[in-house]
Each structure stands twice: as C-alpha cells, then as structure tokens.
Give the backbone structure.
Amino acid sequence: MKNYFDHAATSFIEQDVIDFLAKQLTNNNYNPAARYTSGIEAASSIAKSTQTIASFLGAKPEEVIITSGATESINTALKGIVFSPNPKHKRILTSAGEHQATNETLNFIERQLDYTIDYCSLNEKGEVDLEELESLLRQNQYDLFTLIYVNNVIGSVNPIAQIIKLRNQYQPDLLIHLDAVQALGKISFNFKKIGIELASFSLHKLGGPKGVGILLKNETTRIEPLIHGGGQQNNLRSGTENPALVATIAYLFEHLQKTFEYNNETVSNLKLFLLEQLKQEEINHQVISPEDAVPHIVSIAFPELRAETLLNILAKEGVQVSIGSACSSKKSERNQVLQQLNLPQGLDQYILRISLDKSNSQSEICDLVRIIKTALDKYAI
Amino acid sequence: MEIEYQELILIRLGEIALKGLNRHKFETRLISNLRYRLRDLGKFKIYQDQSRMYIEKRPQDEFDFPTREILQRIKDVFGYVSASPVRRFTNDIDILFAQVKEYVDELYADGGKHSFKFETRRIDKNFPLNSYQLNCDLGKKVLNAYPEQARVDVHNPDYLFQIEIRQDIYLYHEIQPAYSGLPVGTSGTGMLLLSGGIDSPVAGFQMASRGLQLEAIYFHTFPYTGDQAKQKVIDLATRISNFSGRLPLHIVDFTEIQLELNQKVPSEMLTVVMRRMMMRIADRLAEKNNINCLITGESLGQVASQTVDALRCTNSVVDRPVFRPLIGIDKNDTIKLAREINTYDTSILPYDDCCTIFVAKHPKINPNQTDCKQAEKDLDIELLVEQGLNNIETIII
C-alpha cells in the first residue's frame, strides 16, 4: 500500500499470510469440539497454535483467550472483573490517556454498576504521572487498574516496571489490565515477566486480519465471561473456535519473532529520516511524541496549518495519515490525551499522527514532506 | 361475507382552498408535488374534489396500495392541512355495518380499553338512517361487542370514527397533521445560502413551506474544508429536497477568493467582507438563474456577523430581498425544528468550515459602510465575483 502512514490504525495483510490463511481455511476448518478424527485434529491444531501464541507473549497456553478483537478483549477484561466475585471496593483506577474501548466500557460500569472510576493524569510526555499514581494508590483501594501500555496518539510508553513496583508496595492484590494493542510487535512483551493479570491485543494492527484479538488472563485471576454459550475456551469465551484463524495468529507471531528487531530498526531509521527531512526543508514543526516513544507513532504539530486542512491536502495527493486519534476522529470532542500534554492553547488542532511501518520507504517520506512543504507555502494562514 | 373496500388517502386543503381565481394554480402544483414525492413508490391517481384531494390506486394497477409509505412521504409536502387513510365502499347500510364491524374489530384486537365516538356526515339524503340514528346504532353495536373495552366519550375520544355517506361511503379515524403552508413552486424560486451548519437548512425548509422552490449555493474552501464537509452539505441539500423537490446545489470554489481576502482585508473585518463576497456571488448567480430572492439562516445577534450593523453591511451589496426566516427565532427552537426535519445530526458533524478557520479573534461587531469600503479598498471586487461565478460545480439533487 503506497503512501500509507496510518499503520497504528490498521495495517495490511501480506500475501504469504493471506495464502497461509486461505490454505488453513481449506484444510483446517473442522469444529474442534467434534468427536470425529478431523474434529480432534482441529482441536490439536488449536492447542499447538495456542502454544506458539502463548510462548511469543510469555504466557501459558491456558492463559490465552482468542476474541474478536481488542475491543472485545478489553470489554471482557473489565466487565469480567466487575462481574466476578473479586470486587470489594467498587472502584477502578485508569489513566487519562486511554482508548475509547476502555473509556466507554468504564463509563458503562460507572453508570450501570455505580462504580467510582479514578483517572490518573499524564505527564507532559503522555505517560501516567507516577507521583499522582502513588498518591491515588495510597489513598484508595481499587479492584482493578487498567492502563494503556503504548499510547495510540503519541506513542509514549508507560513505565510499567515502576508501576508494578508501586502496586506491589501499596496494593499487592490489585489486578492490572494492560491495553497492549500498540505495544505488540513494537516493544518486547512478556506477560509473566511484567507481572500483570490481564492484557488485551488486536491482530489487525500487525499484519493480521480484522476480527481477531487476544486476551491474556493469568491462571489465578477469576473473571466472568462476557459471552455465554457452548463453553469453549475454558468457558471464558463461548463460540465455535476457528482453528484456521488461530493457526494464522501463530504463523504471524513466528514471523514476527524473527523480524522483530529488523522491523523496529527499519522503522526507527524511517522516523529519523522523516525528522531530518522536516528539518532540512525548514518546515516549521514541533514533534509532539516524546523521544523515547515507540518509533512507529510520530505525532507532529505544524502550527501554520490546521491538521484537518493538511489531511485534506494529503488525502487529495493519495497520502494517508490521521489526525489525533483515528478512532475518535468522528467525534467533535477534543482528544483527551493531547489535552493532557500542556501544549500551547489550541495546538492540538494542528497535530498529525504519522504512523510508520517497515513497508514505508524513504521516497514515500520524501513525497510526504514535499507535499507538506508545498501545502504550507500555499495555504499557511 | 367477503368484505370489499378500497383504501385511499384523503388530504384536507387549508390555505389554498381559500384562494381566489388562481386557486387552480395552487392545486395543480400540489398534485404535481405529491406525485414527485411519491415517484419512487409508483404512479397513483391523485385528484381534487372541492376542498380535498384524494390519492388512490389506479384501476389498472395490481399491487397493494402502500398506505403507510405514502403517509410517511407526504408528511414532507407543503400545502395541505392533514391527511387520513380512508376506506371506501359501496353505499349500502348492511355493507356499512359489516365494514364498521371489521374496522372496529381490528382496533380493539389489542385487548386495550379505548373510548370512541361516531360522527356521520350524510351528504346522500337517500340513505335510510339519518346521521344521529346511525351514530347511535353503530355506537350500540360497538358497546355490545366490547363491553369491557369500549366506552363512549363524546368530548375527547381515543377513536373518533368518521363516516361520510356520499355516492360511496368513506370510513376513517386517523388524522395525520401536515406542515400546511403553500405548495412549493407557487411562490417562485429562492437562492438559499447553504453552509454546513444548523441554521441554513432550517431557513430553507421555512421558506419552502411558503411555496418557494429552492436552489442552494455553498462556498467550498478546499483544502480548509474537505470532501467530507462538501458531502455533508450535499447530504443536507438532499434532506431539504424531500420538502422542496428538485434542488440544484451550486458549489462555488471559494479558496482563491478567501486567500485573497485573507491577505488584503484587516482581520477584524474579514468575516463581514467574506459574507459580502458570498452575498454578491449568490446575488449574481440568482440574477443569472432568474431567481428573485436570497435566503439565509441568519439570526439576530447570534454571532458578530449577525448584528444589525453587520447585516446592514451584507445586505447593502445585493439587490434582491434577503429572506431570513430565523432572524427572530431562538436557537433552541431552530434546533428543535432541525431535529424534526432530520438535518440536525448531519449539521453537527465536526468538520472544519471556513467560517471557523478564517475568523478573527476579535471581529468588528458594529461595522458600517465606511468600514466596509475601507476594508475592501485593495480588492478588485468585480474580478473576484467573476472568479467565483466561473468556478461553480452544480449538482442536481
């Protein structure tokens, strides 16, 4: 896909993945719950794939739940805890930098179940403010802390090790759920080593099809299922399992394991190249993403032209970028993550999110920069 | 006994029935507007009889008469007071009793308690019972059939069963109120200045209700306003066209003009000058298309460009009357109407529009003619107007 700079919204499926999935759908499409040989083979294929998936994520196979996507994973994690016998405090902690999937689920829980939700502020880098977090943990008892791992608007990475330390110090029993959608494949992730109870992922942002996601839930945490039915996946997510899709996730992860470092190095170089080009062309800009953000998300403000205007020009030229958070761009509210960053008044309206992938090229970036420069020359107000 | 009746829709004319010698013009137009609104449902027999109109199936058509769909669509047509779905059957007392029984049975089948009243108009004086006798007889029958559910209420009945005995007999109880007004097209055509906001579609609706056919003009400022903003205006025009009929939408490429203004006009006068340019272009296009009035969604004092002084500045550059039906209307009432005509949800879609981008922090609230002349002194107005007129894309909606 040429001139596509919106990989944090969704990515494209490479041909070998499509071929693999097609082959799987042809040969590995039996009901894994069936008792005949082909059904038993399907079940064993799922078990094998799950093993690969679990090992890639640093989890045990029985901790893996396949869902329809990150939104379902997040809903299952949050509502699953709330409806389980665990909660004692009717209070959930989160941050002010969450994705809508989390925010709207928490709004539902607050409204319908009379929970209190506390939102920890972000610092100017877009990470959760550790001092405030410490004071919240000291003051209140929570049933769950749900946090985005990598921010989807500016790419900042929450300091999870320090967060776990605070949890262990103040509320060792507090369950933590990580929305790791933008982290997967971008920073190394090991469920066990991090020491959290729940984590959500989506596959379509790293070369998989839409409609599939993962929820990790550690063995000792109890959740109530969101979807009831035939009792599949240890009764945690009913619905006939799809051996072909699960095998495809395993295939993607095996590939990712091998290319992880190369990908990130390529994307980091592309990011550097982009920033150099902007400087070289003397384009007035301000990088909003912190320096230690994941390299594939680069949010940049062009203070001379509103982001929507720039987006319109780029779209006309066949270049695809997004403004603010792609998921909330239909809503008129201002992006709450950007509101947290102490930016000059109104600058949030001038921020483009350029999200890169190894498939992008330097020449595409040159085109992007050239179009931005021409646009600013002609239309800057 | 097979009960046979024909379904039709009765339309009560209001204001236009009072017109004098030119009444015919209004009626013909209303019929053609009804036909236009129903064009995707099929062809129907639509005719007028004194202060009423009727819509019914043509004798040669086989399909079922889509009563509900027709009622839904004609809600959007101006020029009549109300409509009712009616059953028509042979003028015969036994058939009447049987028809009323079936009609009433359907309404009481829900098991609920409903009060009722019969009202009969006996135009055919040969009918064996007079109105009063018939009302009493029918009332008794209903009370006997539904002793638990039915009750007579002559003041405020749930069901007011109306029977008209003419050459045939007509039976109905439901009345769907309409917007009234005058049939679109009977007052000429107006040029609506359509933005993507809440007000201008409502203004278009209001003027269409007084019989104006519409053309609309929209000033597009790509890339400051994007394709989505343009689509939003097309969607709004499509909604308005449900009421106003065929609607040419003229999309003016305003970017170069806007940039020129931005460069040469003092920032505090930018909005007023921009609106003066828009009015000039709309006025000239109206001239070209034989249109004698302009319509805007302005409401007094709503924003800096809608003060009396600012309105005088924009008004003074045009020759035609400018209709501003919302000038004295509270915003909440406009929003209410926008919701009712189903433009509100589209109007509030959050795409940039040029009025918000090119707005000064502190616009001049009380500009006068001298201020305008001074602000426009470096502009070649005629050239800019020509430029606007030469860069119009017209979409017929």
Summary: Residues 304 and 348 of chain A are 12 Å apart (CA to CA). The longest strand of chain A covers residues 91-95. The interface with chain B takes residues 306, 308-313, 315-316, 330-332, 375, 379, 381 of chain A (CB under 8 Å). The mean pLDDT of chain A is 93.
